[in-house]
């Protein structure tokens, strides 16, 4: 039961953004590669864009966001060798304790749903996957926040237990933020060794970050793993 990716590169502090180009260079032990997102803000609530990996088009997308800049709908076309090979259309229903994902087909009919129930700390405690209203699987999590663990169980469509194990989870994974509210130090939520991750930022005049360097601490040394640059074009 994984936490969603933290990075939401489209989020900025201003509403007068025309476009945003993000390049993310990842430095692995055996390779280096770059992802690039290009976002176009057609309305306050609609963002169109493209994703490239090493300049190869991987997807095009359309996001709909609410006033809190939370994603409420996404439409994605996935590309392989410059041809569309898959598509994904999802609508999100958000509340304090439940998130529902509705997957739509080409006729805009819901064919699959995922219901995520959360506790008071916003940790997922149950995920129910349904295909045409029939349960495909259920995942549950029982947290022990004092021990930084949770009991993870998976049931199949016949309600048979198919997985039962203890996982590690650091709920208080954010160690520090800067004066602008951006995370500067954290540990990975699912890490047992509590390796420290640090972020350095560079900001523009509107206090939107335009460069972020991610470092991990290994053997008391800082190792750069990712550099993200954002080129923001504001409306005149």
Structural descriptors:
236 residues, mainly beta, 17-stranded antiparallel beta sheet, 17 strands, 0% helix
Describe this structure in words.
There is one protein chain. This protein has no helices and 17 strands. The protein has a 17-stranded antiparallel β-sheet, with no helix packed on it. It has 236 residues and is an all-beta fold. Strand 2 (32-41) and strand 3 form a beta hairpin. Residues 2-6 have low confidence and may be disordered. It has one domain (6-234).
Can you lay out the helices and strands and say which pair or pack?
Layout: E1 17-27, E2 32-41, E3 46-53, E4 56-65, E5 71-80, E6 83-94, E7 98-104, E8 110-118, E9 124-131, E10 134-144, E11 149-156, E12 161-168, E13 174-177, E14 183-187, E15 196-203, E16 209-218, E17 221-234
Antiparallel strand pairs: 1-2, 1-17, 2-3, 3-4, 4-5, 5-6, 6-7, 7-8, 8-9, 9-10, 10-11, 11-12, 13-14, 14-15, 15-16, 16-17
Contiguous helical run count: 0
Task: Provide mean pLDDT, rounded.
Answer: 91
Task: Return the structural class.
Answer: mainly beta
Major sheet description: 17 strands, antiparallel
What coarse outline follows from CA principal-axis ratios? globular
Strand content of the residues, in percent?
Answer: over 45%
Q: Termini, distance in Å?
A: 44 Å
Unreliable runs, pLDDT <50, ≥5 residues?
2-6
Number of separate domains: 1
Report the count of strand segments.
17
| Helix residue percentage | under 10%
């Amino acid at each position: 039961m994984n936490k969603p990716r933290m990075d939401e590169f489209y989020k900025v502090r201003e509403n007068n953004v025309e476009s945003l180009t993000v390049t993310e260079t990842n430095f692995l032990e055996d390779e280096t590669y770059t992802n690039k997102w290009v976002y176009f803000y057609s309305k306050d609530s609609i963002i169109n864009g493209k994703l490239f990996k090493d300049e190869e088009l991987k997807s095009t997308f359309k996001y709909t966001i609410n006033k809190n800049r939370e994603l409420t709908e996404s439409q994605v076309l996935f590309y392989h060798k410059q041809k569309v090979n898959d598509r994904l259309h999802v609508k999100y229903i958000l509340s304090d304790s439940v998130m529902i994902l509705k997957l739509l087909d080409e006729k805009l009919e819901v064919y699959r749903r995922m219901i995520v129930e959360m506790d008071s700390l916003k940790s997922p405690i149950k995920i129910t996957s349904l295909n045409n209203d029939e349960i495909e699987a259920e995942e549950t999590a029982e947290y022990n926040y004092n021990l930084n663990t949770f009991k993870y169980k998976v049931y199949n469509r016949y309600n048979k237990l198919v997985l039962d194990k203890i996982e590690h989870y650091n709920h208080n994974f954010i160690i520090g933020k800067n004066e602008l509210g951006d995370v500067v130090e954290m540990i990975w939520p699912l890490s047992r060794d509590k390796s420290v991750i640090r972020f350095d930022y560079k900001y523009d005049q509107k206090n939107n970050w335009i460069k972020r360097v991610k470092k991990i601490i290994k053997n008391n040394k800082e190792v750069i793993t990712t550099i993200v640059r954002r080129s923001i074009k504001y409306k005149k």
